[in-house]
Structures are given as C-alpha cells and as structure tokens.
Amino acid sequence: MGKCCGPLPAGTAPSPVRAAPSLVGAAPSLAGTGPVSSPAPVFLIKNILFLTRNGVFLIKNNPFLTRNKVFLIKNTLFLIKNKPFLIRNTLFLTRNIPFLIKNNPFLSTRGAAAGEYTGKRTLAPAEGLWYYGIQAGCVVSPFPEAGRRTPERIKRRTMYRLCVGMYLLVVSLGAFAQPSGGVRVIGRVPPASAPGTYHIQVGSFKQMHNAQRVFDTLQRASFNPVFERYGDLIRVKAGGIRAGEVPACLERLRALGFRELWIREEGGAAPPPVSSGSPPVSPRPPAILIPALPAAAAVPPADSTERGFRILTVGETIPGAVPGGTMAAGGWTGGDSPVFAVDSGGAVRGLRTGSGFIRINDHDYVSIVVVPPDALYTVPDGETALLGPGHRAANNATRSLGEYRADPTLRLAYRFNNKGENRGSSGENGGIDIIARGKDYEWLWTTYYQGGWFYDLNGVKRDMVNGCQRDEKNGVELTVKPAFVYVQGVPYLQLTHLLRNTGNTALTGQRFGASADVMVHENDYAPLLHKPYGAYMADSEINPALELMFIGESGPGITPVDTLWLGLWSAGDHLEHIYDNSREDAAAADTALGFSYQNISLAPGETREFTVRFTLVRKEEPAPSP
Fold it and tell me: Model-level pTM?
C-alpha cells in the first residue's frame, strides 16, 4: 500500500492539488514590503492545541472511517493502478506551479517571480527555505529576513508547518475516501430466493493467454471459472453461483479489479441490462446455451433391449424396418417422433437429423438414426448439447456423464479434461476425452477410466484448459475445436487443431501432438491395428461391442499426421512417445496410441489448421422377425 501523505518520491506525480483550505478565515497575505502584521497567526497558533487535543477524539469517534476501513484499504489498489494517470498529469502541475505559488496564501512570497522556484530542487540547508511536499518537491525562495531568527519569524514558520501538516492530513484522508470507480453490471441481480444458479462473465478475449490469466485469477480467488467460446472470442465466467451469493460475488469481483460484469442464469439467455445507459459491449446476440438434448434424442428405458439398429437419411424411406412388416400385437410406438415417421406396414421415413427408437413390445425396441443427405455437413453448435437425464453408461465407475457433449445422432460425445484434473492412470490431465454409444443406448469408454487424450505443445504437457494451451516461450497458441460432421451420411467427431503464432517473429520447428491410454469398453488390452486411414481399435476381435476408427493418415478433409505411434501404456511412458513413429499393430498388452505434427513454420500472426477424425464402425443391424 502506497503512502498518501508526506513528500512524494522524485518522478512521482501527486494527486491533483487544490488550494489549501483556510482553517479560520482568510490567511494573511505575505505580499508587499515590510514585516507581516496580522492577528490571524496568533489565533491560528492558539487553536493548534485545540486541534491537536481533539485529533484523537475525531479519529476514535468517526464511525464512517471505522466502518469504511475495509473500503478504504480496498481502494488503495485503485490509487496504485491509476499511477500512470497521475504521472501523465505531472506536466500540467509543473506548468501551473507559478499560478499555485502566486495564488496560495500559505506559499506566496514577496517578489515571487520566475526562477525563484523549481520542481525538483533538493531542500537547501539555509534557514527560511520552505518545502511544500505536495507540489512535487517545489522549493520556494526565502523571505528577505531569512537569516533573522526573531520570535515572530519562528512563530510564523511554526504556523506554516502546522497548517501544511493539517492540510496533508485532510488530503490523505480524502484520497483514501475516493471511490474506486464505477462497476458496470449488465443483467439483473436475482432475488436471494430465486431458484437455479448463475454465472458472472468478467471478460472476453481474442487471445487465449489473456483469458488464461483471468481464469487463473478467478481460480486463486476461490471462484469456479469456466471458458466459453463465442465466435473468435473466449469468454471467462465465474459459474455455479447461487442467487443469494450474487451480490457478494459482485463485490469480490469488483475488489479484484473487474469493471464490467454480466449476470446470466445458467442454462438461460442473458437478461436485459438494469440501466438505460449504453448498450452491452458486444452487439452480437448471446451465445446459444442448451441445457439438454432436444426431445428428438429420447432415451429408451434402462430395462429395454435393443433388437435392431437402422440408419437412414432425411427424406429416405426404409420398408420393413420393424420386424414382421406389419404392426405386431400390442403395436409399437415412435410414429410421433420428430426424427422419423413409421407406418402400419413398418416402413420408416426420415424427417430430420437425430436419434430415436421404435418400441416393438414392452421390453424390446429398434434404434433409428437419421443423418443429413449432404456429402459433407457440419452440425451447428446450437444442435449439439450436453447429455441430459436418462442417459446412462455401461460402466458404473463412469464420471461426469452429463458433462459430455454429443451430436443429435448420439454416436460420439466429448468432454475437455482440463489441467489439474486427475483421471485415468497417467497423471494430471490436459486434453479431451471421447466416449461412444454402444448397444442398448449405453455410453462406453474409449480411454482408460476416461483419462482421455493428453496434449503436448513443444514439450509443454498437462496445460490444456477447454481445448486451449500456450507455449509461453515463443508465444505459440494451440486450440482444439471439436465439431460433429457427417460425411456421406456417416457421423464423425472432428478435431481441428489451430496453431497460431501470436508474436511478431517468424517461427520454425514447432510441433504438437497427443496420446491416449486406450481402453475400449472394458478391455484395457484393446488391440490396435494400423490401417491406411490411421488406426482401428475394438474391445474384441471376435464379437466387438465397440469399434472405433482414428482417421489421421488419409481421407477428405484430413491433414495427414507426421507421426503415428501404436504401442504400450508402460506405466505412463506412452506420453514420452507422442513424437515417435511406430505404425505396427499392438495387442495382447495394455495399449496406447499417439500422433503428432512436427517441423511447423509460422509467419508472425499466422494460424494453421490440422484436422483428424473419429468415427464408430457399426453396420446396420435389422431386427430379426418375431
């Protein structure tokens, strides 16, 4: 905490100076010739004792100062942060020194003229020189009688010193009492009894390292920070805040230095601003927030069994999709689904992209997946969502299932495993995990205990947060952007890697990659087979419940990897092989898989893209006739 009274260090501009207030009416003028003759100094001296004696009384009995002690301390940060403003105004103060000296009754001198003052002169030892600490070390010329130590002279000097001291005290208290500046709050503060939780957005950034610094600040202050992608911006928010905690959190965020805060209910749209002032900073509409998958992604009961699996495109009709070709006894349901329509003859017609099921009887059903007819279709963000209630995992040890984001066909889902989390058996995470839907609408693992893919950027490991990490040494930034795409009707999870040079110097020899401790469904010894497109993995070679393809060597829209490594987990040593090449099958042991891109050159500000994909290998399985 900086001091607010006494002489300021050289080169530091003071707070804007006002003329010293008169304590007992007009101060005596020192202009003119001859000694000063006025009863005011004597009156001032007599009252000094009164002010001194009552100083303790004033401090002890000022409830405003006592109650606002925390406010005064918190606002010291504002004074320190505004030091550049004070320094910029030093020139103004210096230029106006002649005006201040000539017009200040406490500092006016007989015959004051240009050259009789200086802004930074060291206080001379000669008697009679007066030092005014607030004016950047301004030294005023001596009185003509400076060498005469008369009683009147001593009294006058004592008077000036005490008056200046009292003025400094007033200025210092006033400085502490200054507010820290307005905080703009967008959105309404909810009533304490309001249901649900809220998040408060504190900033929006184009560069990940800036967003990361704010994220870390919130984390150190015991908030629950999260990132949110919005176009080319990265929003940082404090989430999971109950309605009754919002006012206290706003005050804590204000104390941390944030000056624009957005309040939004989690899972809802942004409420309108409370004031009629200027509009929000961003003129674009708020990001789409969808708490759960649409009704088209209905999930069958857990005690039901999947008897068949059919895939069709929007507008396509498949006859006989339901066993028997005619409505079975007891009928079937599903005809009212927004995804497809089924007639009495068992023909199914695709209406829109999504997933659903047709109940054959009380315990059996046929799964239906409808995909777009386009050769290449990218699912908009608004059509993806977190797995909602009713979704279940085959393994009871599955964690955070509701945090995985899926596409409308419910084939694959992903979740960012951020730094600091510890999943799997390879140490702290920093990447992305992928799960896949198996038979009976159950979600299955593709990595050991959801450890996921660990990313490495130029040797920087375990540092990814929500798909973003940075190499601070050279300013390279890596962003992983998941997206669901349909290629010729086949659903894929696509990972686009954006490598950006944020500096002003061309870079060469950059590299990044990822590795995973593979576990397909419940098989930690899942065989890995090298294929022309990349790698194939399954939980069984004979009767697999889950088959997954990693496509990274060839295919439309794919950026061929520089290295592909199929090997063994080896107590976490697989992370040391991210940049190695081994394209031989691996099986009969705890397997691992890795890939990388190397020797990358980037011009200043350049961004390059590298794309790989994952997809399930699951053929249509028409249900057998009853």
Answer: 0.57
